[in-house]
Amino acid sequence: GQFHSSILNQTVPYIRPQENGYKEDVCFAYIMPRGPSRGYRRSVLILGETTFGFSAHHFSDSDFGVGGGYQRHTSDLRPRPQTWLHVDYRQQGVGGIDSWGFNPSPLSKYSLPYAPLHLTFTLSTFDSNQP
């Protein structure tokens, strides 16, 4: 089936900001700007040759703690006007026994193999006023 939602509605307000809202086994994703336009805005269509995973946020990776400049609480985050889009072959699962120990790892059935992986997709942009 198809799933429709806004990017901000996909954000999970964890106490400590972290990556979230990931979608997997996706055939296509359509990211469209919302609200009044103040300039040139484009829509994005991602069409996978096979299924893929993706996330889209109005927060940068560093807002979530990637690279060291993270916020301590979700209430510290302020949505940005830009959209950060991540397209992945898959994402290593979070199905671990615990997440608090040293080097927690997901169960093997939720792990990706240590091997070359291949993903092919088409990324198209177009004027957001077009259907």
Automatic annotation (TrEMBL):
GO CC entries: beta-galactosidase complex
Protein origin, superkingdom: Eukaryota
Keywords recorded for this protein, A-Z: Glycosidase, Hydrolase
Single GO MF descriptor: beta-galactosidase activity
Signal peptide: none
Domain Beta galactosidase small chain/, first and last residues per copy: 1-124
InterPro entries referenced in this protein's UniProt entry, alphabetically: B-gal_small/dom_5, Bact_Beta-galactosidase, Gal_mutarotase_sf_dom, GH-type_carb-bd
SMART domains, sorted: Bgal_small_N (SM01038)
Entry keyword Hydrolase: yes
Catalyzed reactions per annotation: Hydrolysis of terminal non-reducing beta-D-galactose residues in beta-D-galactosides
Transmembrane regions: none
EC number assigned by the record: 3.2.1.23
GO terms for biological process, alphabetical: lactose catabolic process
Name assigned to this protein: beta-galactosidase
